[in-house]
Design goal:
Radius of gyration: 31 Å
Number of helices: 17
Mean pLDDT: 81
Structural class: mainly alpha
Length: 355
Amino acid sequence: MIAASLLASPLRGQDSLMVRRRKQADSLLGSWREAQKLADVADSLEQVRATVGADTIAVGGLRIVVNPSPLPWRQAAELAWPVIDSLYGSVAADLPQHPYIFRAVDPDSNVRRTVLHVGVEVPWDLDVRATTTLLLTTVTPPSFDPTLADWLAAALRPTLRPQDERAVVFVQLVTVPSEAVRGCFLGDIARCEDVLQIGDTTGLLGRWYATPGEREALITQAFTDYFARGATAPSMQRCRQHHDDACTALLQSLPPGTLPPPLGGSARILLVREALSAGGRDAYRRLVARPSAPISERLASAAGMDIDSLVGRWRNDVLAARPKPLTLPWWASFVAIGWTAFFGLCALRSSRWRL
């Protein structure tokens, strides 16, 4: 009996400890819920305060709440909505759930303004194009999951000038000192998928930066400060002396996910735009439908085609952004010859050339 009571005492003590811990956890959970309710109330009150006397402008699924000002909000919204709708398709219908609040202010005034914690302050001297761009850059992508955001390294927002993105990616394809990028430029779709980060993620170092020169350049240009001190300093010095084993070891020691891809984020954003353009109005809905699926599968589902075809289409669009060669009219050469002759005669008539 004594032994049994001795064994039972620690068990009762553990039970009472668990009960106390459970009560503490329940108390903390209740406090957190109360704090969340208070925060929601505060946000609601702040939103009401920010929208007092404001106007609501609705164009399509776009809702903006603005104070009276000279800004051309309606014109800008009418220009912005078709661009938003063409990108997000049927999912753009969800945007009215989250209206955008703007407060126009005098940029030259020193008058102290009421501090608001919701909405965006903008100067009231913007023109239509600048106001439209502001609306497009403020739109929050609907159902934008963290996996997609991490892969893109940027938010997927509408743009008035997609041709500028294509031009940027074209310049990257022809100037980035990488054999993988060069292979993509020459038509190797597998290389394109590698540099776009939609293929196999193992052994990326060897595929992205295939030559010793590329690895050394990456170290010296992007990671000099990171590796130049502490235990990695000797390896950094050896890498600078063209020892590829040191360069490779340093790059392999980087934390997962920090090896910079050869192509910038604009290339991946352009690929998503290509998928959404090919897939129709429900393309964006399919893109965000399965956040746990591989990016390549999500893009293929959105585009309604296999990933190789989509990447090939992306590459063709990028190559089509090649700057057009400058063509001169037929008479330009005669004008150049005439001016050359004129300046030549002037030089011969100069006293410096007389004997």
